[in-house]
Amino acid sequence: VIILAIESSCDETAAAVVKNGREVLSNVISSQIDLHTLYGGVVPEIASRKHVERINQVIEQALKQAGLTIKEITAVGVTYGPGLVGALLVGVSAAKAIAYGADKPLVGVHHIEGHIAANLIEHPTLEPPFFSLVVSGGHTHLVQVKDYGVYEILGRTRDDAAGEAFDKVARAIGLGYPGGPKIDRVSREGNPDAIVFPRAKVEDAPLDFSFSGVKSAVLNYINGCQMKGEAFCQADVAASFQKAVTDVLIGNAMEAISRYQVKRFALAGGVASNRALREGLKDACEKCQVEFYCPSPIYCTDNAAMIGTAAYYEYQKGIRHGWDLNAVPNLKLGDSR
Ligand code: ATP
Ligand code: MG
Ligand code: FE
Hints:
about 325 residues, alpha/beta, 5-stranded mixed sheet, 10 strands, about 20% strand, globular, binds adenosine-5'-triphosphate, binds magnesium ion, binds fe (iii) ion, tRNA N(6)-L-threonylcarbamoyladenine synthase activity, tRNA N6-adenosine threonylcarbamoyltransferase, iron ion binding
């Protein structure tokens, strides 16, 4: 089974060819980061327009790198939510046109299901059930993966997503967009214990997250410094903020591991490429004899290979979407059929 997968939910135009769910034959990603850096964040209208300009080329390149023609593809997989509606529509329309034209089945995929599936690509023996922490630009979920395509969300953020907090704090301390990778890098020069930022707990919901408090604390700290006419140390603020966020993520992950007697734990989403988080969670899992999984950074941030992997398992279950498939900007995990 060979899937041509398309992803355009945010600011990456991506296409990939994936064989039997786990073998990536090509993985083409055209990022718009440079364009959106000008505005300090993703501008939806610009994102949609750039997707339109690039999608055909990206798809052609994915097929070419895989050495295949559309005839040799089994099915077309595409992200249809959640994400920016205008951005999603570009991928969904392209996928429908290609699938219809080549007479191939169409499989719609949930973007977060793709992020979780990214773990399967490089870990051929990993199979459900396992637990996953999804940390991305728009989501922070603790998920029980009961079977392929069967999820239960056991913890979620009450306000900002982890990646969103990284991006907002990065902007506030003058690092610019995209914040996550920049905080990751600058933190290596800073002292994570220099400033104590709050580690929020959600009352009566020990697996839930809240990151608006730590974000405000960083803003207050910076304002305080500016009012006193003092300069703040960017690296120390970045490292201390990153430590506060990773402490909470790892703390809740450990709570889930003990509550649900988890044996295998998989990190997923763009923030999963954060070095401190990967290393911290790996150590914590090893200490309690839990197998730890994490995709390579290229499969953590948005890509179409992960969508191809998720689409393969949906395809195997017999899931097919009609030509009326539409973008669903607020699609819920587990609702993708
Ligand atoms: P979602 O997947 O929730 O729909 P998205 O697709 O926009 O959102 P991803 O591409 O999965 O998000 O991840 C992007 C996020 O990951 C951004 O918030 C970015 O700052 C963050 N990120 C990327 N690399 C790192 C890193 N090394 N450290 C921390 N955060 C990072
Ligand atoms: Mg992105
Ligand atoms: Fe994503």
